[in-house]
Amino acid sequence: MDELKQDCLFCKIIRGEVPSYTVFENDDVKAFLDISQVTKGHTLVVPKKHLVNFFDYSQEDAARFLQYIPVISQAIKKSDPKIKGLNVEVNNGEVAGQVVMHSHIHLIPRYSENDDMVIPHVNHADEYDEERYNSVANAIKNNF
């Protein structure tokens, strides 16, 4: 196990110091049920390397850890014929809602449009024109 931290909750789960309901594990990742169970089957996928969030990932880290998202997602869907969809959620940084500062991906099964899970989104399209869109796009492009 690469570079685990002593005081990180998810590192403790990876080391087996804190119990979890593991659904998948290999040398690269551990996937376990989120204790909150936003919906039944809500699973966290955690790299077995302490990375705070996606801002810390190298391309090699992404290739190594993110390749399991489809495999775990498919197993979740197959686990219950009532599952109609799946939200894949990543919170990067406290301002984005990240609570545990160890990279993790939420796989949240969706059973219906009325399953009490609400994802608020705001539409600011009316505040943008072609010039503003191009300005934002170029600011991002210039950082590759």
From TrEMBL:
PROSITE patterns associated with the record: HIT_1, HIT_2
Active site: H104
Entry's Gene Ontology BP terms: nucleotide metabolic process
SUPFAM superfamilies: HIT-like
GO terms assigned for molecular function: catalytic activity
InterPro entries, alphabetized: HINT, Histidine_triad_CS, Histidine_triad_HIT, HIT-like, HIT-like_sf
Motif (Histidine triad motif): 102-106
Domain HIT as annotated: residue spans: 9-118
Protein name: Hit protein
Organism: Lactobacillus hominis DSM 23910 = CRBIP 24.179
Biological classification of the source: Bacteria, Bacillati, Bacillota, Bacilli, Lactobacillales
